[in-house]
Amino acid sequence: MNATLKNPLSLFEVAGKVAVVVGASGAFGALAAKVLAGAGARLVLVAGSRKALDETAAECRGLGAEVEAVSRRADSEAACAAVVATTVTRFGRLDILVVASGKNKVAKIVDMPPAQFLDIMDVNVTQSWLMARAAGEQMLKQGDGGKVILMSSARGLLGHPAGYTAYCASKSAIDGITKALGCEWGGSGITVNAIAPTVFRSPLTAWMFEENDKADAVRKGFLARVPKGRLGEPEDLAGPLLFLASKASDFYTGHILYADGGYTAG
């Protein structure tokens, strides 16, 4: 019998792997860091907010992980190259990249200054592209594959009537990058996939989980489209993340994994 079939859980092992998590101070980035830490990965955590970054790093160390905390934004070619260089200096290699940083500003198109649109595209798209480029270069040098996980959204597939032109465009672009890189690096052993959630509990969406008339009305309308009948919790992203970061997903690349309770199915 195949050794993997004797121990199928070994497919999900990431112990000893070196993972870079960009946006480690945000809701999904912090979760990704803690999931990988608990699974035994060695971590380089990157974020612009020093205080929040240190809190995430401390929690990951508490889970037994080796952690390097880098307080900077991956917002230029030089910054992304520096993150990779720090990773290789500390741990000798790079196996997993998770880009969890992002932003949104809701505004109708006629009310949104072009500079605001470009800023959202820069943070959500350009920075993801730059970080994937820098990490991929290192993985290609190593010659033994790697895992790149980007952050998309159900809004990369679906529009929204409430002023999401910039956000939807940015997440559609992430989907395109994911598919293109999945093809470009397909023969190298590097997989490139994206997680696409719908509304999840985070500091930005906390108001939707509150018990008041406004939140109740918005939530009711939204949940009418969600077959699972609830909003997402950060823990709902843990399984998809570990799957995409591990050997279990070796045959999956260029894939958008919708963590949405069935929202995009109906």
Mean pLDDT: 94
Distance between the termini: 40 Å
Structure class? alpha/beta
CATH superfamily: NAD(P)-binding Rossmann-like Domain
Strand content: 5-15%
The fold-level CATH name is: Rossmann fold
Number of domains: 1
The CATH class designation is: Alpha Beta
Based on DSSP secondary structure assignment, what is the total number of beta strands?
A: 7
Give the C-alpha Rg.
18 Å
From the 3D coordinates, which CATH architecture would you assign? 3-Layer(aba) Sandwich
Strand order, main sheet: write it out: 3-2-1-4-5-6-7
Report on the biggest sheet. Answer: 7 strands, parallel
> Can you write the helix and strand succession as a string?
HEHEHEHEHEHEHHE
Q: How many helices does DSSP assign? A: 8
Helix content: 40-55%
The low-confidence parts are none
* Shape annotation: globular
Task: Identify the notable features of this structure and list them briefly.
alpha/beta, seven-stranded parallel sheet, globular, 266 residues, Rossmann fold, 8 helices
In short:
With 266 residues, the protein is an alpha/beta fold. The protein has eight helices and seven strands; from the N terminus they run H-E-H-E-H-E-H-E-H-E-H-E-H-H-E. It has a single domain (3-202, 234-260), classed as NAD(P)-binding Rossmann-like Domain (Rossmann fold), CATH 3.40.50.
Structure description:
With 266 residues, the protein is of the alpha/beta class. The chain has one domain: 3-Layer(aba) Sandwich (Rossmann fold). Helix content is 42%, strand content 15%. The chain contains 8 helices and 7 strands. A 7-stranded parallel β-sheet has the order 3-2-1-4-5-6-7, with helices on both faces. Helix 5 links the parallel strand 4 (96-99) and strand 5 (146-151). Helix 5 (114-142) packs parallel to helix 6. The protein is globular and about 50 Å long. The chain starts with a helix and ends in a 7-residue tail after the last strand. The mean pLDDT is 94.
